[in-house]
UniProtKB/TrEMBL annotation:
Subcellular location: Cell outer membrane
Bilayer topology term: Multi-pass membrane protein
GO cellular component terms attached to this protein's record: cell outer membrane
Origin superkingdom: Bacteria
Domain TonB-dependent receptor-like beta-barrel residue range list: 274-705
InterPro entries attached to this UniProt entry: Beta-barrel_TonB, Beta-barrel_TonB_sf, Plug_dom, Plug_dom_sf, TonB-dep_rcpt-like
UniProt keyword annotations, A-Z: Cell outer membrane, Membrane, Receptor, Signal, TonB box, Transmembrane, Transmembrane beta strand, Transport
Organism this protein belongs to: Duganella aquatilis
Pfam families reported in the protein's UniProt record: Plug (PF07715), TonB_dep_Rec_b-barrel (PF00593)
UniProt entry tagged with the keyword Transmembrane: yes
The protein's name in its UniProt record: TonB-dependent receptor
Keyword Transmembrane listed: yes
Taxonomic lineage: Bacteria, Pseudomonadati, Pseudomonadota, Betaproteobacteria, Burkholderiales
Length: 743
């Protein structure tokens, strides 16, 4: 990758030379004049109202590659959670099984490589995008390469969720939804109310939901010695029923002063309450080996009741102050608070119904954060903008875990101890965005970030971790002469992935059926951030109003890759398998991404009213310190694809549509001793939309119509023993009916 740096600088110098030889920029277009009537006749008043550029125009004009998906995409399929929307976007995949979502991944890269922002800011700890309703979101921005004004903790890219901001909204909106899974109803109510009084405008958005779910998982655990003797053979059937109730509130207030300054504030409140009951049946396999050779099962039946409460509050605000000329100062501020409480009571019985043990688990987490920052921007001549700014973020976490058996004995050394952690993040940045000529636009930026994490409590005592990263960033766009719909993008960037606070200092997370395939998890305060050098190239051809054909490629060289090692360790409760994160060395990933999106009527005269969407991505990766052939980055599939159609009928106010999301099976050598398999994922969604009139419409949709089982296998071979855990998770079709009205 270092060989690419001189080439990149040559490209920048070439762009500057092209600028020097280019014709001077055209003068500002004259304002349209209104010719007054010679007589006293009334002249028709013309009102010109500005607003945000269209999604495709924002994508086309952005120097740093950015894809924008607004309300049309968010509303298209009537999804009940934001994850179902994101899974159809180019290069985006979801962990977990269909219908239940999971962590959001760009370019197939696992949790932590993709940066998730809400209104350009990091969400509070514990925030789950899966629980965010699409009705709360105005648009989603996907940036494949980092920019200086946002954090560069984005090796795979950044997904920025912009909450409802009221652009051109005039009507109250009410949406009533009922989702049905296995006969269980999950109602949802969403209301949006805009308003204005003098210089104050507001948009009040809220949602209420009551979600009912049932999950079933079958697991086969089998341990085999090197001589082929099976010493453990167990079948576990887990069933869980869960009811979750929640509230979302995202009001937005904006005040415009007489001086032209603007003050904006948008709090975001998410509150969830969940009750669950589970049943776990454990039986030994029959017919493989004599029962006398098998280890006795830990239990025959386990019953668990759980209760979870979580509340997250995040406030976003900014003050835009206009300075002399077109310069401005944008000062932002924010705060966050969150708490979660988890209580579980588990009873384990033998095959005669006798109580073997009782486990009481309690976990409490309290988070607080505050941040401020700003950006000063000023034009330098025409089509040239310079900006610089800062970010400061302070975070505090207090965490307690208590795990007791029926005798009141602690299950791990730190049980009941209070652990506190403080995080301080400081960043400064500068960026220069310049329309060099009619063909060239460039972006150069640099960002320095420093993070310090300290903690106290528990057996580890006082620990600290400090890291800093300097990220130079280059982006360029070349518009092909004579082809006004074609352009080429290139980016050369430095980015990083910081170890999360749980991996640094977390209290142990215990596994009830402890094994190499189901180990306890702990942290490592000595972790260093992963550093990546990245190159992105893309060709874009724009079609009509909202169409595009694009082909792009990327490469990332990653140093100090973090992976988890599994080892058998002696603890106060005896030998246990423990998973610990470590920096293991160098890795590389690369890929190609193709996208086609267009309206058929814009390409074929008198064609049917069909909107077509498709994308395909292929990924390669390797980890140097792990033997092949499947030594890929964790959870990264080799391919992923989406295809979708929408058909608007001519003789009826009906639109029909559907989409297919596909990810093939993956087999990954996660470490020298661990092999992980995940089955293919095919999710077919369909919908029908009937518009009664401009203010009322009914949408019927179905998600995960194929309802294929999700199968996974985890194999660990160490200490002369091979442990296999093979899981089968059922998935289900989810039907939804949504009535939408404006008033």
């Amino acid at each position: 990758m270092s060989k690419l740096l001189p080439l990149a600088w040559l490209a920048v110098l070439g762009a500057a030379d092209a600028c020097a030889q280019a014709d001077s920029a055209a003068a500002d277009a004259p304002r349209p004049a209104v010719k007054a009537a010679a007589d006293d006749k009334q002249v028709q008043q013309v009102t010109i109202s500005g607003g945000r550029a269209s999604d495709m125009d924002e994508r086309r004009n952005s120097v740093a590659g950015k894809q924008v998906y607004g309300r049309e995409e968010l509303d298209r399929n009537g999804d009940s959670n934001l994850g179902d929307v994101l899974k159809r976007l180019p290069g985006v995949t979801l962990g977990g099984r269909p219908g239940r979502g999971g962590d959001v991944r760009m370019r197939g890269m696992g949790s932590g490589y993709t940066q998730i922002l809400v209104n350009g800011e990091r969400p509070p700890a514990g925030f789950s995008m899966e629980s965010l309703a699409p009705d709360q979101v105005e648009r989603v921005e996907i940036m494949r390469g980092p920019v200086a004004e946002h954090s560069t903790r984005a090796i795979a890219g950044t997904i920025n969720i912009i909450l409802r901001d009221g652009y051109q909204q005039r009507d109250n909106q009410l949406k009533l939804t009922d989702s049905i899974e296995q006969g269980r109803h999950s109602p949802n109510l969403s209301l949006t109310v805009p308003g204005k009084t003098g210089s104050l405008t507001w948009l009040l958005t809220g949602s209420l939901f009551d979600n009912h779910q049932h999950d079933q998982t079958a697991t086969v655990d089998r341990d085999t010695r090197a001589d082929g003797v099976v010493v453990k053979d167990e079948n576990v059937l887990d069933e869980t029923r869960r009811e979750t109730r929640g509230l979302f509130l995202t009001p937005r207030l904006s005040y415009k002063f007489d001086s032209g300054d603007t003050l904006n504030f948008q709090p975001f409140l998410m509150a969830n309450r969940s009750d669950s009951n589970g049943r776990s049946d454990l039986a030994q396999g029959a017919g493989l080996v004599p029962p006398s050779l098998l280890q006795p099962p830990e239990y025959n039946l386990a019953l668990t009741d759980g209760h979870t409460e979580s509340t997250f509050l995040r406030g976003f605000g900014n003050w835009v102050h206009k300075l002399q000329g077109a310069s401005k100062l944008d000062v932002k501020f924010g705060f966050g608070a969150g708490h979660s409480d988890n209580d579980a009571l588990r009873y384990q019985y033998d095959n005669a119904g006798n109580l073997l043990d009782r486990f009481t688990d309690t976990a409490t987490v309290r988070d607080r954060s505050a941040n401020t920052g700003g950006k000063y921007s000023t034009p330098i001549g025409k089509q040239h903008s310079l900006a610089a700014g800062w970010d400061v973020e302070l975070g505090h976490r207090q965490e307690t875990k208590v795990s007791l058996d029926k005798n009141g004995a602690a299950q791990f050394a730190d049980s009941g101890d209070n652990l506190t952690a403080d995080t301080r993040r400081l960043a400064v940045f500068a960026q220069d965005e310049w329309d060099i000529s009619a063909q060239w636009s460039g972006y150069a930026g640099v960002r320095w970030e420093g993070i310090r994490t300290t903690s106290s409590g528990g057996s580890a005592g006082e620990i600290s971790n400090t890291s800093s990263v300097l990220s130079p960033l280059l982006h360029a766009v070349y518009r092909i002469p004579g082809h006004d719909k074609d352009q080429i993008r290139a980016s050369l960037t430095k980015s990083y992935k910081a170890a999360n606070i749980q991996d640094l200092i977390a209290l142990p997370a215990l596994s009830r059926l402890n094994s190499a395939t189901q180990p306890d998890r702990t942290g490592n305060p000595n972790l260093k951030p992963e550093l990546a050098t990245g190159l992105d190239l893309a060709y874009e051809h724009y079609l009509g109003r909202a169409g595009i054909l694009s082909a792009s490629g990327f490469i990332r060289n990653i140093e100090d890759l973090i992976r988890r090692d599994i080892s058998l360790e002696n603890t106060l409760t005896g030998p246990r398998w423990v998973s610990t994160p470590r920096n293991i060395g160098h890795a590389q990933t690369k890929g190609i991404e193709l996208e086609a999106k267009f309206q058929l009527q814009e390409l074929v005269a008198d064609g049917p009213a069909i909107d077509f969407r498709s994308n395909y991505s292929h990924f390669w990766s390797s980890v140097d310190d792990i033997p092949g052939p499947n030594n890929r980055l964790d959870a990264q599939p080799k391919q992923t694809a989406n295809v979708g159609l929408d058909y608007r009928m001519k003789d009826a106010p009906l639109t029909l549509g559907g989409s297919l999301n596909w990810t093939p099976e993956t087999l990954i050598q996660s470490s020298v001793s661990q092999l992980v398999y995940t089955s293919r994922k095919r999710s077919f969604d369909a919908y029908g939309l009937w518009k009664f009139n401009a203010r009322n419409q009914l949408r019927v949709s179905a998600n995960n119509l194929m309802a294929e089982d999700a199968i996974g296998a985890n194999t660990v071979s160490t200490n002369g023993l091979t442990q296999l855990a093979n899981t089968t998770n059922q998935t289900y079709v989810v039907w939804s009916v949504k009535y939408e009205m404006k008033f």
